[in-house]
Design goal:
Number of domains of chain B: 2
CATH class of chain C: Mainly Alpha
Largest sheet of chain B: 2 strands, antiparallel
CATH topology of the largest domain in chain B: MetI-like fold
Helix content of chain B: over 70%
CATH class of the largest domain in chain B: Mainly Alpha
Shape of chain B: globular
Structural class of chain B: mainly alpha
CATH superfamily of the largest domain in chain B: MetI-like
Number of strands of chain B: 2
CATH architecture of the largest domain in chain B: Orthogonal Bundle
Order of helices and strands of chain B: HEEHHHHHHHHHHH
Chains: A alpha+beta, B mainly alpha, C mainly alpha
Strand order of the largest sheet of chain B: 1-2
Mean pLDDT of chain C: 85
Order of helices and strands of chain C: HHHHHHHHHHHHHH
Helix content of chain C: over 70%
CATH superfamily of chain C: MetI-like
CATH architecture of chain C: Orthogonal Bundle
Strand content of chain C: under 5%
Oligomer: heterotrimer
Radius of gyration of chain B: 24 Å
Shape of chain C: globular
Distance between the termini of chain C: 28 Å
Number of helices of chain B: 12
Distance between the termini of chain B: 20 Å
Number of strands of chain C: 0
Mean pLDDT of chain B: 85
Radius of gyration of chain C: 24 Å
Chain lengths: ~375, ~290, ~280
């Protein structure tokens, strides 16, 4: 058990830099999830921590020791792979014991450790089987067990659940979280699935194009996304983004020429171009005069608990101004309707039109507590 | 060239691992090949005292030598004979096996074992069967009015070595044809059957064209086999005779080098043979590349 | 089968039975000949039914040899063949495994060169460069030795390629898992790669055993001492004499013994053999 420090780490293949200086400080026992679309560099970063990729620049410390030049086996880490990478010719027991044998542990010691891990993972009945005789979920457990028996400084998990079907994934997600909490080992977990990321992480690292765009708790990432990328990536359906221009006291001018004045936020200086972000779940139908926005409904998806109304901002032509709103399941709405919507208090986000960075200076100090309740719904959709 | 995403970092180890193979390759393959190449430009006098550099004289002599022309011609007839006989027999057997269901495995077992028989042993067995005095085949042929004698008849001798060499190769071709037939999508054959094509028509319009990559590959392999691996068949039976009629190129290299002790000519012949192998290998690899693209 | 045509099915079986009979016929005649006495071959026709001399013939060639031909007892030649075949099969597999491992799992200067050097051996069958190769072996003093019989035939591009192809299909994650488990290259090779290659090794073993056992020209050249004769080349010496003094019963008994081990290997390991044959040509 120990902390991990990733200091200004860069990775280049030839002349192409794929990771542009990432800094992450991971506390002892913390569960960190690195999330991002494919090709964002999240796996490469994890593999650099594991020692499977060389580090072009910067340093990685595990438990206060710089590991840049150490072999993977010397770094005191254990890794769980997407396809599990179980040795096909070895029994479950031997798969878990292999690392311990190499480390030179005594037979009794190995047996005790494997037994303990197998009990935790309910693998006792399968110890003599070969991987091909196991189900997907059982293989996943063996892969976890192989990491567990080593009692390493950190677990590194590379998309460990993506080969499982949806139901099993939810179950194993919970098991992994409970397991990590019970042994208290630092964990670094890579996924492209935002639900896994939100539910597992103590803190999230959202990566995009080789840059860590935001590192914070899942709630903070959801409530105050640092960039338009993070805002669009976390939350489903994605946050609505509307280009606006600050119009002084009148509020923000939309593409359709109307102005909107969200409540409980500060507004940028007049004339500044910005992007207004509003999550679909943070708008509610109101009677006409109180509306912030008007939506021309083009398609309706009924999910049972919720109904999603897709369409565009009233009066906007040529493709821009797409808008989605999440309504209670009981709402009656049909394509062709025009919905008058109000943005909930303090639930508007403003980003710089050029860089996409959050206009932090406009944030109010307190985050409304209401966001928490909606979180689970939002991420589970 | 392909490698792994993950590699090991040791600097000395890979060389140590390659050493045995490279050492053997250099000592027993590259060095002798180089020697053959060098020797092909040299001539020794009758007593082996003096060696001199003669440029392409060995090659010029070789290509002017009617015996060498004969040997080339014999090799062509022999190779094509072996390739045709063994491919045709194997294809017929493979087609027949493809139609049987339960018995296919048994038939395959009964047909593949000759692959394990040494060419020399195959040669001796057929030599025995064709023995002009007591052999059973000459006896049958005599009843049909043909007087068989491979000791005096060039044609008979050629037929003997072709039959012996083909016999051994049938099992190899058979296995590849069976694999090739199994790889033809069943739906294609069924579609043709629904279109009303009978078995013969299906064979010539669907199966044979789809089998042509396998056939071409086997053709090359069989020619290589007939040119190089059949030395033992010749040596164990006709020894190139009668009257040079079965003296194929590899046998001539051996005969001129070890019995005639004409090292320059033998070396020049080796170089020509190497050139032929290289061409055939390149053709074979081309074919493999093409197959990969399917 | 697309449709049911009883006549065509019957024809298929007839063709196959005819094929099996034709393929087996020379061997049948050889076996029959090996059961007869020497006088049966003086004149007339090869006998087609078994005779009473089976044990005599086999005992005689196995243990005392055929004095007139100068060939040693077959038991000794069979042993020599076995040593040569095993040395070639095991040796080729061993050096091919490690060289393929080096080429696939390491990156080092001159890797391409090493690859092509091995590749070239594919193009140089021993028959084409027979004279200079013989000279090298003679210069190294390896005539009339097991080393001379086997080592020059041990380098094989085919086996190296087969293992290279196979190694390339082994998932990278297995290597990575082994590295995380603390295994270095040699441990990985021994504990993971070698066990995974078992089927390929078995398949190649069948092919190479046959290749080694059936060698003819090479043992003919490098052995002058009958103590190192192999059975496949020994037959020729016996057959030469048999033309003058018909000993066809003994020659054919030798023929049967010479093909027995490789045929048994092929039949017993048919599954591996077919796999090895088809894959080594890819």
């Amino acid at each position: 058990m120990s902390a991990i420090a990733i200091r200004d780490v860069r990775k280049s293949y030839g002349k192409t830099e794929v990771i542009h200086g990432v800094n992450i400080d991971i506390a002892d026992g913390e569960f960190i999830v690195i999330v991002g679309p494919s090709g964002c560099g999240k796996s490469t970063l994890l593999r650099m921590v594991a020692g499977l990729e060389t580090i072009t620049e910067g340093t990685i410390e595990i438990g206060g020791r710089v590991v840049n030049r150490l072999e993977p086996g010397e770094r005191d880490i254990a890794m769980v792979f997407q396809n599990y990478a179980l040795y096909p010719h070895m029994s479950v027991f031997d798969n878990m014991a292999y690392g311990l044998k190499i480390a030179g542990l005594s037979k009794d010691d190995i047996r005790a450790r494997v037994d303990k891990a197998a009990t935790m993972l309910q693998l006792q009945p399968f110890l003599d089987r070969k991987p091909r005789q196991l189900s997907g979920g059982q293989r996943q457990r063996v892969a976890m067990g192989r990491a567990l028996v080593r009692d390493p400084a950190a677990f590194l998990l590379d998309e460990p659940l993506s080969n499982l079907d949806a139901k099993l994934r939810v179950q194993m997600r919970l098991e992994i979280k409970q397991l990590q909490q019970s042994v208290g080992t630092t964990a670094l977990y890579v996924t492209h699935d935002q639900v896994e990321a939100m539910t597992l992480a103590d803190r999230l690292v959202v990566m995009h194009d080789g840059v860590a765009e935001q590192i914070d708790t899942p709630m903070a990432v959801y409530a105050r996304p640092a960039t338009t990328f993070v805002a669009g990536f976390i939350g489903s359906p994605a946050m609505n983004m509307l280009p606006v221009e600050a119009a002084g006291n009148r509020g923000l001018m939309l593409a359709n020429g109307r102005t909107v004045k969200p409540r409980d936020i500060r507004l940028p200086e007049k004339g500044r171009k910005a992007i207004l972000g509003v999550r679909p779940e943070h708008m509610a139908p109101v009677s006409g005069p109180n509306a912030d926005l008007e939506l021309d409904v083009a398609a309706v998806e009924t999910l049972g608990a919720d109904t999603l109304a897709h369409g565009r901002l009233a009066g906007v032509e040529n493709g821009s101004g797409e808008l989605v709103v999440r309504l209670p399941g009981s709402t009656q709405v049909r394509p062709g309707d025009r919905l008058a919507l109000a943005i909930e208090l303090g639930m508007a986000h403003l980003f710089d039109a050029e860089s996409g960075a959050r206009l932090k200076e406009l944030d109010l100090p307190a985050v409304p507590a209401r966001a928490d309740k909606r979180l689970a719904e939002a991420v589970n959709a | 060239m392909q490698t792994k995403r993950t590699i090991f970092g040791n600097r000395v180890l890979p060389y140590a691992l390659l050493l045995p193979q490279l050492a053997i390759t250099c000592v027993f393959f590259l060095w002798p090949a180089g020697q053959a190449f060098r020797q092909s430009f040299l001539r020794e006098d009758a007593f082996g005292f003096k060696t001199r550099f003669v440029w392409f004289e060995n090659y010029e002599k070789l290509f002017a030598d009617p015996l060498y022309h004969n040997s080339l011609w014999v090799t062509v007839i022999f190779s094509l004979g072996v390739a045709f006989l063994s491919l045709a027999t194997a294809l017929i057997l493979a087609l027949a096996v493809d139609r049987t269901l339960r018995a296919a495995r048994t038939y395959t077992t009964l047909l593949v074992w000759p692959y394990a028989v040494a060419p020399a042993v195959a040669g001796i067995m057929w030599w025995f069967l064709f023995n002009p005095t007591i052999g059973i085949l000459p006896y049958v042929l005599e009843m049909l009015g043909y007087d068989w004698n491979h000791r005096s008849s060039s044609v008979d001798a050629m037929i003997l070595v072709i039959v012996a060499a083909s016999w051994k190769q049938i099992s190899y071709n058979f296995l590849f044809f069976v694999a090739g037939l199994a790889a033809i999508p069943h739906s294609l054959v069924e579609a043709a059957a629904i279109d009303g094509a009978g078995p013969m028509k299906r064979f010539f319009t669907i199966i044979f064209p789809l089998l042509s990559p396998t056939t071409f590959f086997l053709l090359v392999v069989n020619v290589v086999y007939a040119m190089f691996d059949t030395f033992a068949v010749i040596h164990a039976t006709t020894e190139g005779g009668p009257a040079q009629s079965t003296n194929i190129l590899v046998y001539k290299v051996f005969e001129d080098g070890f019995i005639g002790l004409n090292l320059g000519s033998s070396a020049a012949q080796s170089v020509v043979l190497m050139a032929i192998v290289i061409v055939l290998t390149v053709i074979q690899f081309r074919w493999i590349e093409r197959r990969v693209q399917y | 089968m697309v449709e049911n045509r009883p006549l065509l099915n019957l024809l298929s079986h007839l063709v196959l039975i005819a094929g099996v009979v034709v393929v087996a016929f020379p061997v049948y005649v050889a076996i029959i000949a090996s059961t007869r006495g020497p006088t049966d071959f003086m004149s007339g026709l090869i006998p087609l039914l078994p005779g009473p001399h089976t044990l005599d013939n086999y005992r005689r060639i196995m243990f005392s040899g055929v004095s007139t031909s100068g060939a040693p007892p077959i038991a000794l030649m069979m042993t020599n063949s076995l040593v040569m075949a095993l040395a070639i099969a095991i040796g080729k597999i061993a050096i091919s495994l490690i060289s393929a491992f080096a080429i696939v799992y390491f990156r080092f200067p001159f890797r391409q060169l090493a690859f092509w050097t091995i590749f070239i051996t594919l193009m140089l069958p021993v028959e084409v460069r027979i004279v200079p190769t013989f000279k090298v072996v003679a210069d190294l003093g390896m005539l009339n030795s097991y080393a001379g019989l086997s080592i020059p035939l041990i380098a094989s591009a085919t086996a190296t390629f087969l293992f290279r192809q196979f190694f390339l299909t082994v998932p990278d994650e297995l290597t990575e898992a082994a590295r995380v488990d603390g295994a270095g290259p040699l441990k990985f090779f021994r504990d993971i790669l070698l066990p995974l290659s078992r089927t390929n090794i078995a398949a190649l073993f069948v092919i190479l055993f046959i290749y080694g056992w059936n060698q003819y020209l090479w043992p003919l050249l490098v052995t002058t001492d009958p103590g190192y004769y192999t059975v496949v080349m020994g037959i020729k010496r016996m057959a030469e004499v048999a033309d003058a003094i018909p000993q066809w019963n003994l020659v054919m008994a030798t023929v049967v013994l010479a093909m027995l081990p490789p045929v048994v290997v092929v039949v017993v390991m048919q599954r591996f053999f077919v796999k090895g044959l088809v894959e080594s040509e890819k």
